[in-house]
Amino acid sequence: MWFRQDLRLSDNPALTEACRRCDQVLCLFIDDPQDQTISQVGAASRVWLHHSLAALQISLRNKGSELYFARGASEEILEKLIGQTGAQRVYWNRCYDPLTIDRDRRIKLALRDYQPGTFNALLLQEPWDNLKGDGTAYRVFTPYWRSAVAEFDKDPQLLDTLNTPRHIPPLTRSVGKKLQACVALNELCLLPEFDWHRSMMTHWRCGEVAARAQLERFLKSRVNDYGRGRDLPGQEGTSQLSPHLHFGEISPRHVMNRLLGSRRFDQLSDDELIFAKEIVWREFAYCLLYHFPHSIDEPLDTRFRKFRWARDTDAHLRAWQRGQTGVPIVDAGMRELYATGWMHNRVRMIVASYLIKNLLIPWQSGERWFRDTLVDADLASNSMGWQWTAGSGADASPFFRVFNPVLQGDKFDRQGDYVKRWVPELAGIAERYVHKPWELDAQSRDALDYPSPLVDLKETRLRALKAFSDIKGTNRG
Ligand SMILES: Cc1cc2nc3c(=O)[nH]c(=O)nc-3n(C[C@H](O)[C@H](O)[C@H](O)COP(=O)(O)OP(=O)(O)OC[C@H]3O[C@@H](n4cnc5c(N)ncnc54)[C@H](O)[C@@H]3O)c2cc1C
């Protein structure tokens, strides 16, 4: 049983099948340098991965089994282990990024004598199961959502989940001894040398048990005010399930199942329905990743290939990354990201809009930084989020809609609680200035240990609109 983006025991179809069919199950994780989805992600995600694997190892040990680790090319490791143990079958759950799909195809072919069994554990629906009437992929969310809901209402069993296997047959001692390709979890070196990650991880509990508890906490109260609360970065209004879902510590089927109970979608409250839609936005992102794999780093709207970005932007990019732009809500978001590995969705949109439209820096630079620093960094959702903000993706916000960070701050962080939490330099200033400290009198401003704005918001907005008008009339891809 080859674990990948499915680091859990419950609702894990590959594991269930392995336990049903085999009298010994080797549970394996491979740290593959070529793996785009799970292993070779950014530093923050690798820290999460370490803790998630440690949690999975404990769950398996509690069941009398063991999690084995290996490092290297997956093809070679699997072949070596099959040779060493005499394994007769191989099981895994599918991933959907282009490099992994190619690699898995090769492995499936090479191991065809071992009857590879592959399953869906990551999504509610496979990306090829929810298509338009003409068989092509949706590029607009609302019809995608309607079609998904119609399917689930028609066949509620699509959302059924599997229990944790009662018995995970361990390897016999003699087989276990033959596993020369395996190493200890620490030898994967997922944790960085410097221990910045310790303070980041005080914000989180990893693993399946923690993920389920997090979901239950959210469903007990927060979901009832989700429509309003999800826009307020100063409050805990969202589920914070994203890293758990990304690493497969919890399945989206389980989340949807617990949300719905025995109800249909049209019986959900407005708040619950908004939450269900967010789970399906994640599905939509995977659908785009699968059908338009180039959208990871190229604009889906090909007019943007000719877009004229600003030049010599290294210093601006660095200031953005470090939360030193002089725009409070942008800096608060970037500092929250660096400290916790997570950022509130509303603020993700604000900082992305600021980078792309005010600093005129290509969205790919922001996407890369997010990939390195988010604990929920996810190829599908991250590229969709960045392309959405840039206006170059599917069902995207139009390019001419430039978020004004001051108005956004006034609206969604009215008292400045969020900004003051992450930008303590501004903790003492009056509410009305917290999102625009540059309007303070000169003496109070000089007393602040906080930078002046990098760029003028109005001028740079006009510059972005001008750059956009240059490509607007060209042909769209
Ligand atoms: C520029 C940008 C980059 C982003 N990068 C990522 C990323 O790398 N990984 C990631 O998981 N999400 C990403 N998102 C989407 C969204 O910001 C996060 O999923 C959300 O903030 C996670 O917090 P939560 O779990 O509390 O979400 P909740 O509001 O509680 O939503 C529940 C779940 O729904 C899914 N979801 C919610 N919003 C979205 C969305 N807009 N797109 C896709 N799925 C969504 C997530 O799995 C989330 O855990 C990005 C958004 C933007 C604008």
Summarize the structure.
The protein is mainly alpha-helical. The protein has three domains: 1-121, HUPs (Rossmann fold), CATH 3.40.50.620; 123-162 and 208-291, Serine Threonine Protein Phosphatase 5, Tetratricopeptide repeat (Alpha Horseshoe), CATH 1.25.40.80; 302-472, DNA Cyclobutane Dipyrimidine Photolyase, subunit A, domain 3 (Orthogonal Bundle), CATH 1.10.579.10. It has helices spanning 13-21, 43-62, 74-85, 98-110, 141-154, 173-176, 197-201, 208-220, 226-229, 242-246, 252-260, 270-291, 314-322, 328-340, 345-358, 363-373, 379-390, 405-412, 417-422, 442-447, 457-472; strands spanning 2-3, 27-31, 67-71, 91-93, 117-119.
What's the structural blueprint in terms of helices and strands?
Layout: E1 2-3, H1 13-21, E2 27-31, H2 43-62, E3 67-71, H3 74-85, E4 91-93, H4 98-110, E5 117-119, H5 141-154, H6 173-176, H7 197-201, H8 208-220, H9 226-229, H10 242-246, H11 252-260, H12 270-291, H13 314-322, H14 328-340, H15 345-358, H16 363-373, H17 379-390, H18 405-412, H19 417-422, H20 442-447, H21 457-472
Parallel strand pairs: 1-2, 2-3, 4-5
Bound molecules: flavin-adenine dinucleotide.
Describe the protein's architecture and organization.
The chain has 477 residues and is mainly α. The protein folds into 3 domains: 1-121, 3-Layer(aba) Sandwich (Rossmann fold), CATH 3.40.50.620; 123-162 and 208-291, Serine Threonine Protein Phosphatase 5, Tetratricopeptide repeat, CATH 1.25.40.80; 302-472, DNA Cyclobutane Dipyrimidine Photolyase, subunit A, domain 3. It is 47% helix and 4% strand. The chain contains 21 helices and 5 strands. It has a 3-stranded parallel beta sheet with strand order 1-2-3. Strand 4 (91-93), helix 4 (98-110) and strand 5 (117-119) form a beta-alpha-beta unit. The radius of gyration is 24 Å and the shape is globular. Bound molecules: flavin-adenine dinucleotide. The site of flavin-adenine dinucleotide (FAD) has 27 residues, from helix 10, helix 12, helix 15 and helix 17.
